[in-house]
Structures are given as C-alpha cells and as structure tokens.
Amino acid sequence: MTENPKLTRKDFASDQEVRWCPGCGDYAILAAVQRTLPKVGASLEKTVVISGIGCSSRFPYYMSTYGFHTIHGRAPAFATGHKLANPEVDVWVVTGDGDGLSIGGNHLLHLLRRNVNLQIMLFNNQIYGLTKGQYSPTSTVGKVTPSSPLGSVDQPVVPVRFALGAGAKFVARGYDVSKKLGDVLEASYRFQGTGFVEILQNCPVFNDGIFELITDRKTGPAYQLWLEHGKPMVFGKNSDKGVRFNQATFSLEVVDLGGDITEADLLVHDETNRTLAFLLADMPNVVALGVLFREEGPVYDESVRTQRKLAEDKFGTPDFEALMRSGHTWTVS
Amino acid sequence: MTTPSTHLREDLDSVVIRFAGDSGDGMQLTGSQFTAATALMGNDLATFPDYPAEIRAPAGTTYGVSGFQIHFASIDIMTPGDAPDVLVAMNPAALKVNLDTLKRGGLCVVNTGAFTKGNLKKAGLEANPLEDGSLDPYRVLALDITKMTLEAVKEYGLGAKDGQRCKNMWTLGLMFWLFGRDRQPTVDWLKQKFKKKPVLADANIAALNAGHIYGESAEMPSGIGTYQVPRAELAPGRYRNIEGNQATAWGLVYGAKLAGLEVFYGSYPITPASSLLHHLAKLKHFGVTTFQAEDEIAAVCASVGASYGGQLGVTGTSGPGVALKAEAIGLAIGVELPLVVCDVQRGGPSTGMPTKTEQSDLLQAMWGRNGDAPLAVLAAATPGDCFYMAIEAVRIATKYMTPVILLTDGYLANGAEPWQIPDLSQFEPFPVNFRTDPEGFHPFVRDEDTLARAWAVPGTPELMHRIGGLEKHHDSGHISYDPNNHHKMTKVREAKIAGIQKDLPDAKVHLGEDSGELAVVGWGSTYGAIHQAVEQVRASGKRVSHVHLRHLSPFPPNLAALLSRFDEVMVPEMNNGMLDKVLRAEFGINAQGYNKISGQPFYIGELVAAIEARLAGKNPNQMYDAHGSAHGAEA
After folding, report:
1. Which of B306, B461, B464 sits opposite A84 (nearest CB)?
2. CB distance B459–A89 less than 8 Å?
3. Is A81 within 8 Å of B303 when comparing Cβ atoms?
4. How far does A146 lie from chain B, in Å, by closest CA?
5. How far apart are CA A164 and CA B65, in angstroms?
6. Can you state the percent helix, strand and coil of chain B, rounding each to 5?
7. How far apart are CA B176 and CA B584, in angstroms?
8. What is the Cα B524 distance to its own chain's centre?
9. Which residues in B lie closer than 8 A to residue A45 (C-beta atoms)?
10. Which candidate from B285, B466, B469 shows the least CB-CB separation from A311?
11. What residues in A contact B241, CB-CB < 8 Å?
C-alpha cells in the first residue's frame, strides 16, 4: 500500500462522541492507532476494525473506517471469516483481557495458530471494566474485587506467553501512553500474518495504577526493557541495567552494568528465537516491550486462496450441469 | 411367493430389504451398493440407513447393530417402507434387534457362521433362535456365509480377519441374484475403491461372484424363489440418486450462483451434518470457501464475518450446534446480514441420539434466541427437495438481509432417492445489488418494499460505517438507547420477516380437497409417510387431506384460511408436539399432534391407524403412549 499523504489522524476519527471514562488508557491507544494508520498508508474504506464485547470493544465506533462490534470473545472468528471473504481490506481486531483470554480464549488460540493476516490488539487492564470491576484472567492472585472480596485465587495468564504457546508468529507488547506504541502497531501491520500486540492499559476506575511503576515517566525507565533485534538488552534511565542469561537457572536475570559486567555479558535480542521470547514474556522486575518474537510463515488466508486456485486449475470452469450428471445417472423415457 | 426357480422370476411391485449386521460388517456399504444397482434398474426407491453412534461398538452386541433399509418398487414410493419383506441378519444381535419388524412370511437370510455360543451370549440370547422355533413364522435361508466367503477368497492369501470382511460382498452377490440386479457397477466400484490394493478388489469381487453363483446353483429351500421388480413409471427425464445433505450442498452452491455470490461455509463437524462440509469442500472451484472452525460458535461467527465481507455466509450443524450458535444468529438478526443456517436435526435434548432422526428443533429454530429475534424458517420434505429449499433459503436470506434456518434431519440427510435432475432454466436469478451509492446512505437505510437494509461491503469508497449488536438508531445506524427507537426497531425487524409472506407460494393441498373433515398437516421428512397414509385412508372414502409445509416462518399466506375449512387439524411430528402448538397459537385452531419420539421415521401403517383413530374421535397418542406397540417394536 502506498503512502496516502492526504489523510491525517483526524480523518480516522468518527463523528461519534467517545464514551470511555475520563483518564482511561483507551483514549491514548485510540490516538496511537489514528496516528499510525495514515503513517502506514491505510485508507478509510479498506480498513475494518472488528471487536468483541467490553470497554475496549467500543473501539470501532470511534473510527471513521468500517467496523463491526460483534459478540463477547468471538471477534477473532468474525475477523477470520471476513479476511477470507474480503482479502483486500486490512483487518484490526480489538479485544481485552476478559474478551480475548476468558470467554474468547479458544478463538484467540486458533486465530494465532492459523496465522491469519490481520492485527490483534489485546488491551490488558487486568480487570473487568464494563461489568464493574470483577477480577479478570490476567488479575494477580489476591486481587480484591466485588467477586473476590477475600482476594482472587485464580492464577493469572500471561498474554504474550499464551500467544507464544499458541504458535503466534508475531508477538509484541506496548503500553497505552507510550510514545513507541505507534511503532509497535506499525510493526504488527507490516507483518504478514497475525500481529499480536498486548497493550498494558490503565483502568482509572476499577484498577487504577497497576502499571504505574512501569509507565510513570520517572520510575518507568527502570522497568522498561525495549527490545531491538540484534541489540544487547540494555535498559534503565542511564542505560545502566541489562539482562543476562543465567545458565545455572536457565532463566533471565537483571544485572547492573559497570564493575566487571559489561555489555558483552548481556543477551542480544534475537526476535526469531521463540525460546528466548518465552523467557522474556514474564520476567521479574522488568517488562519486555517491543517485538518479542517475529517469524515469517505460511499465512492462513493465502493458503486457503491458493488451495482454491489449485482446485480451479485442476477442475477448470465450474459446470453445475455436469456436476449434477456426475456418477451414475439414467434416463426414464 | 411360490416355486423356486432360477429361470423364471416372480414379478413384485415393491420390496423392502433390511440389511443388518455389526457396525463393522459393512452393512452401509452393502446397502448403498444395492441402492446403486437398483437405481440403474429403473426402480423407484427410498433408503434409510440406521446406524449406531459408536463407530465400532463392541462386536456382537445389540447396540452395535447397524442397519440399512431399502424400499424399491415399480410404483411411486415415498418412504423406505414399514416392515421389511427381507431381513439379512449377519449375526445373532442383528437378528434379535430386527426380527420383530420382519413381515410374517417374510424372507430371513441368516449367517449361521456367526451364531456361535459367544455371539449368542453377547446378543443376550439364551437359546439359539435358529433352533428354538423363533423363526417359524418366516421363510429362512440359513447359510454359513462366513465359511463360504473364506472359501471363496482363500486363493488371495488374506488372513482370516481380512477374508471375513468380504462376507458382506458375498451376501450382496446373493441378494443381487435373488432380485436380478447387475453386479458390474459394484465390480467397477470395488476396483476403484481398492485401486492401490488390487488383491482386496479381487477378493471382494470373488466373494461377490461366489454369493451370486451360490444362488444360481444351490438348491433353495421351498418357498424361496427369485424375483424381479419391474421399472417404475417415473416422469421422463434424466435421473440420479441423491442424499439430502448432498442436495443441500448443491442447492447452496446453485442458490449462491443465482444470487451472484460466492459461498462461505463455516462449520464444525457434527453428526448428521458433517457430510455437508465434505460435499462443499470438494466444490472449491464453484466459488466455495469451506472453513472447518474450532467450534460451532466460531463457525457461525466466521460465516457472519464473511457475509459482512460480501459473500454468502452459511453454517451447517445439528441441534446442539444451533444452541451454541444462538447468540451469533441473534447478532446477524440485529445487524441484518444474510446467513443460512442448515440444521440437520437429530434426537435431543443435549447429545440425545446423534445418529437417529427427529424434528425437535422447530421451536428452537423459531424462537431459540434472546430478545425478540425473528428469522425465516424453512423445511425440506424429501432428500431431493433439500436442493430446492436450499436455493429458497439463499433467496430469502439475500433478498431480506436476514438469517434463514433450513431444517432437514438425519433421515433426509442420509436417505437417498432417485432424483430427476432439474432443468436449471426454471430458476430465475436473484442477483444481489451491493450498495455503492453514497447519496443518502446509512447502514440501516431500507428498501421500502422488503424492508431489507442496504448491504455495503468494506472496501467500498465513501460507505464506511459501523455495525454491531447494540441497538441502532433507525435513521442513522448509530448506537441508540432511545426507548421509542428500540420499540420501533423491534417492530421493523418483526415486520421485515412477516413481510416475506407476500413473497411465498400458497400452502399446497398435496392430496385431497381444500376443505373437509380432517387436514393432516406435516412438515419436513414425514412427507412421504403422511402422503401415503392419507392416500390409504382416502381410499376408504374418508374426507382427509394432506397439507405439507415447507415455509414455517413466516407461514404461507393462505394457511390460516385453508386450515379453517377443515373440521379438525392433525399434526404428525417426530417430536413431542411443536408445530401443533404454533398452529394453535397463531391461528387459534384446534390442532392436535400425533407424536412419535423414537428416533425412527413414521411407518405408513401407524399413521393410517392414527388418522383413523382421530376420525373416530379418539386421541391416537393415547393408543401408543399406553402400550408403545408400534414404537416398541423398533427398540
């Protein structure tokens, strides 16, 4: 797709009043998407946003593109059918931690393993917002909510680890107010296949501040590990921290640079290494951001079209009359 | 049936044969080969495969018995027959399960080789029925088919296990001889099937020939002769055999062609609907995309997503799948996108009886969704009718932008009948016009006549819009919680479906006058049995008519007036009473059900008795519910 210089961020905003709570992280994500689409040369008529149910899933109504607000958890299935039927359009799926990992976990699994050519943004706020604050499948153990007054006893799922386990070929992470979120979304858009992006998102009403240490301007740098393929894993305000592989425990550890530890001791990010991506998915004391994993592979919708083309080449022009007369037939006169 | 002769064949109008054996005995194959040979002889026919849900139930048990019934005739027939004239029983369990259905005096072909002590015990038989007089009312051909088959295939060096597998072909050969069928199509079929293992083809052909030769040369017991069933007088034309699911698949493809659309078929395997997916997967070059989804819900959702993308979204399933799809069907009703849902009904509730037929999804189809969620419901009457009703489903779905549920059932899906290949020029195309004009567009702008909303496909310039399950403002499509608007939109959705009625043919009186003492009203696969039962009752001078419905929501325009001209209305259904409830609710008439809930199709005989009971002022249900005679015989 060629760059379309005429469109701007505003062109991608619909005339509908945005109805998320004041201070919701969704506003920043919406802005990031509306900034990114003109940048990547997307057009209004060839963009389709498909969502499930939940706060995040109101997203399509605020875009001036095509959009389909479907039913709880099933957006990946609608999107798969749509992409197969209408391959010319760019499909963006919007889901949340409840929609995508609880009621829709099965569909997310199968979308990722198939590698349908679309982007999926999973807004993770670790809470059910639209139903007023129950714990979600990503909530931490002990989370006190109206449905867990003594604290949740559910073990949480780690979205990017789930995606990697499902066989996803593009797995990335960003957060709502990050300036780099647009770059992560652009990378998912450029990827041929399912681009899975977990977006850490603040819910100011029911789960305020859970990501504050990571996203706060002052404390954030000490917790954000932005990954770059082929570059050593350095982070920290003064680039004074790094990630090293501990052979004894077969895990990653955060180390302070200086003294006898230098950059040469650090891991170099290899985004084609799924094992490494699993280790990066859930580290103590630091959050891996950017593209954790990227691997080219067969794209589902292309494979389906290729098979159809093969059938067309093999059987030639369809002849319905001949189909009905195939096999044993006889004449009654 | 008189003197045995290998030269002179006795003419019969109509014969019913039931092949029965272990589910691993190949009875379905035997039956379908006999069907193919019979169709080529020019007989009218109807078949009824009746198999257990277990793929290979423990050998020798009664619950592992698989049956295939074929009714063929020189006259016009519509059902696979009531009681068989001939029962082929490959083991004691098959004999035990089916003997009660065999006509007194009928022919019973038994494989004595399988009547071992062990098999008798597995079948729960204390005495050997071959010896205890149970077979006295029948003519019996008791042969050690196992032994003769092994003898026939000895030279091919198969082990005892593979050798024994050929005994269905030996039996088929004998049946071909008894009824004068040509072996060649089966020989050709075996060669094709075992192309990669020619030794198996040779062994099976040898068994087939050996069975035939046995018939030609062995001295038959008295009372067993050979028969011929002359060609049926069918309407002139080109014929083929067709099964219901095949006809549905073809109708969907041809309906989509008439609409100018490609087909997207999203489905999850489920008995007895799976073969729809198999048929359509072979037709990719006809503009068909098949998607085997991860579950029933994903299957329908992907299909709705495809409809949003400008293809004909179709999903196929059975009752449990329809239950799972309900929410997504409701969404398709709300966003007003075309969708065809094929419900191949089976026994319920829950998993119920997957391989047995039933009509118990009618109310689920009509009302099984949250909210006021009307849609169109159609039902096919015969295997061949599935083709026509699938086209009708596509027509209504695309013209009115609505989901349509097409009801068939396990009996139609797997049953076969000779089918006159239709003249395609009879079908008027109904091309879809996608909206491209931005002037005055919003997603819920409606056609004044049909009330269908505009179908604008993503990718179309200047028609960008958002749709979803939240209530939409009638004049913009934007989200609206306005109380009056929701009332209005509910009424519009209702009026759109009700308005389809203007576009439907009148309900037909298939037999009899358009007024009288009793209207027997049916829908779906009971067509043939009801028709022939009404015909028999009318022969005794009773004023009974047969009305059969193919449109169930909305009903045909004349239905209320038509039924009001009868003193009484009787509704035979293979469920516990559904259409009768709807007729009472809709028209306030005294419609009464006659209900068989055994997983088996109606017999003509039991319907005749029920109609006569009803005419005599009795409740026919009490007759059967009390002692279960007609139903119990099949258990």
Report:
1. B306
2. yes
3. yes
4. 26
5. 47
6. 40, 20, 40
7. 50
8. 9
9. 458-464
10. B285
11. 328
Residue of A nearest to B479 (CA): A61
DSSP per-residue string spanning B344-377: EE-B-STT-BTTS---TTHHHHHH-SSSS---EE
Give, as one character, the DSSP assignment of residue B524. G
Phi-psi region of A31 (alpha: psi -120 to 50; beta: other; left: phi over 0): alpha
Q: pLDDT per residue over B82-119, tens digit each?
A: 899 999 999 999 999 999 999 988 999 999 999 999 99
> Which one of B285, B388, B432, B434 makes the best mutation probe of the A interface by having the most chain A beta carbons within 10 Å?
B285
A-B CB pairs within 8 A amount to 199
Q: How far is B335 from chain A (nearest CA, A)?
A: 9
Residues whose CB falls within 8 Å of the CB of residue A48, separated by 6 or more in sequence, listed in order: A65, A66, A67, A68, A82, A86, A89, A90, A91, A92, B458
Which regions of B487-541 does DSSP assign to beta strands (E)?
Answer: 509-511, 516-523
Q: Give, for all 333 residues of chain A, the pLDDT tens digit.
A: 444 458 999 999 999 999 999 999 999 999 999 999 999 999 999 999 999 999 999 999 999 999 999 999 999 999 999 999 999 999 999 999 999 999 999 999 999 999 999 999 999 999 999 999 999 999 999 999 999 999 999 999 999 999 999 999 999 999 999 999 999 999 999 999 999 999 999 999 999 999 999 999 999 999 999 999 999 999 999 999 999 999 999 999 999 999 899 999 999 999 999 999 999 999 989 999 999 999 999 999 999 999 999 999 999 999 999 999 998 888 887
pLDDT in tens, B200-213: 999 999 999 999 99
Could B297 and A74 be called an inter-chain contact, meaning their C-beta atoms sit closer than 8 Å?
Answer: yes
Residues of B in contact with A327 (CB under 8 A): 240
A103: nearest CA partner in chain B: B297
8-state DSSP, B453: B
Q: Look at strands B107-111 and B86-89 and give their pairing.
A: parallel
Q: For residues B498 and B491, is the Cβ–Cβ distance under 8 A? A: no
For residue B533 the two structure tokens come to 């039962």
> Chain A interface, mutation test: which of B308, B420, B479, most A Cβ atoms within 10 Å?
B308
Question: Per-residue pLDDT averaged across B250-255, rounded?
Answer: 98
Q: d(Cα A42, Cα A60) in Å, to the nearest integer? A: 16
Q: Measure the CA–CA gap between A108 and A116, rounded to whole angstroms.
A: 11
Taking contacts as CB-CB distances below 8 angstroms, the residues of chain A near B479 are 16, 61
- Contact yes or no for B458 and A45 at CB 8 A: yes
> Do residues A290 and A228 touch, judged by C-beta distance below 8 A?
yes
- Asked whether A118 and A79 are in contact (CB, 8 A), the reply is yes
Chain A positions touching B306 (Cβ under 8 A) are 81-82, 84-86
Tell me how far apart the alpha carbons of residues B243 and B257 are, in angstroms, rounded to a whole number: 21
Q: How far apart are CA A213 and CA A219, in angstroms?
A: 6
| A interface test, pick of B294, B340, B471 with most A CB neighbours within 10 Å | B294
Residue from the list B236, B250, B462 with its beta carbon closest to the beta carbon of A323 = B250
- Joined together, the tokens standing for residue B350 give 């829950």
Q: Do residues A255 and A242 touch, judged by C-beta distance below 8 A? A: yes
**pTM as predicted:** 0.91
Tokens 């089916």, residue? B98
Q: Which two tokens stand for residue A199?
A: 């977006």
Q: Are strands A287-294 and A251-256 parallel, antiparallel or unpaired?
A: unpaired
The H-or-E segment that residue B611 falls in is: helix B604-615
Q: Is the ipTM of this complex over 0.95?
A: yes
Q: Which two tokens stand for residue B123?
A: 């079948």
User: Tokens 């019969």, residue?
Assistant: B12
Q: Do B465 and A66 touch (CB under 8 A)?
A: yes
User: Helix, strand, coil % (nearest 5) of chain A?
Assistant: 35, 25, 45
In the structure encoding, which two tokens stand for residue B88, read together? 């082929």
Q: Number of H helices and number of E strands within chain B? A: 22, 23
